[in-house]
Amino acid sequence: MPLSLVDLNQEVIIKFIRGNDKVMKHMNDLGFVVGAVVKPVQKLGGNLIVAIKDSRIAIDESMARKIIV
């Protein structure tokens, strides 16, 4: 299921990330890697605030759809 469909405050594990090399590198730089635990904490104007490791990161909905959990 894409991260964009996960209920708020539900911890999930990243299983796959769809995208080209540029997308994959960008997501990796942000900490979104296969096996990472993430938790959507807030939806804000088409963006999703995600808790990952010790950070909160905003990603847009199209990016959240590329992250399969």
From TrEMBL:
InterPro entries: Fe-transptr_FeoA-like, FeoA-like, FeoA_core_dom, Transcriptional_repressor_C. The keyword Repeat does not apply. SUPFAM superfamilies: C-terminal domain of transcriptional repressors. The keyword Iron applies. Keywords: Iron. Pfam families: FeoA. One of its GO terms (molecular function) is transition metal ion binding. Gene3D superfamilies: 2.30.30.90. Residues 1-69 form the Ferrous iron transporter FeoA-like domain. This is Ferrous iron transport protein A. It comes from Pseudoramibacter porci.
